[in-house]
């Protein structure tokens, strides 16, 4: 089970959009639902939570990354540059596209 | 009930800063009773910490918003800007974007905000649609277009 943390300013609005897009991408590539878990939080909580996750995706700027890979989820909001982001996420998680 | 309202649409809004744009739109929402008096300050604070400029292409958009607790009723204020105004990029706060269209989200239902945002996202990803909105000069034209686009939004509690 791979664990993914999605974060935005308040952990409610744009992270939900990003989370849904990520789920859609997993579905599209037939990643089984029990292969991953996605949690949502605010950017302020990321530093204390990131160690327990395989991948962090943030829609707002985040500079405090150590260890866990942090990807910028803005493409999920603008639809520009989505494919490279998905490629990278799959690579980090070890999922097959 | 529609999320759009003719009283919340400002064609060719004149402003020099993001704060000015936010203030003017928040005032519209406040004057019409759709948000609490604390809404404007909440949006301004939020924008300073977590900017909402989106690099959507030739036409950039900003989506300032605040927590649902600052609102009374779900509404969206829309402004086309007379000249582009700099908003900071949501994903890279050191970068400034020239924003031409602003959608201020005042959404009362917590889950509704997400649905609204996804709908707005599909709009801001459509440069042709943004171009069409920017070319509109009257409240009625912008209202008709935005209202039709948002009309299939359904809220869940």
From TrEMBL, chain A:
Domain PTS EIIB type-2 stretches = 2-97
Cross-referenced Gene3D superfamilies: 3.40.50.2300
**Which GO molecular function terms does the record list?**
protein-N(PI)-phosphohistidine-sugar phosphotransferase activity
BP GO annotations: phosphoenolpyruvate-dependent sugar phosphotransferase system
Specify the superkingdom: Bacteria
CDD domains for this protein: PTS_IIB_galactitol (cd05566)
UniProt keywords (A-Z) are: Transferase
Transmembrane recorded as keyword: no
Would you tell me the protein name for this molecule?
A: PTS EIIB type-2 domain-containing protein
Q: What is the species listed in this Swiss-Prot or TrEMBL entry?
A: Lacticaseibacillus nasuensis JCM 17158
TrEMBL record, chain B:
Q: Which PROSITE patterns match?
A: PTS_EIIA_TYPE_2
**Every PTS EIIA type-2 domain range:** 2-149
Pfam families associated with the record: PTS_EIIA_2 (PF00359)
- Which domain of life does this protein belong to? Bacteria
Q: What is this protein called?
A: PTS EIIA type-2 domain-containing protein
Q: Identify the species of origin.
A: Lacticaseibacillus nasuensis JCM 17158
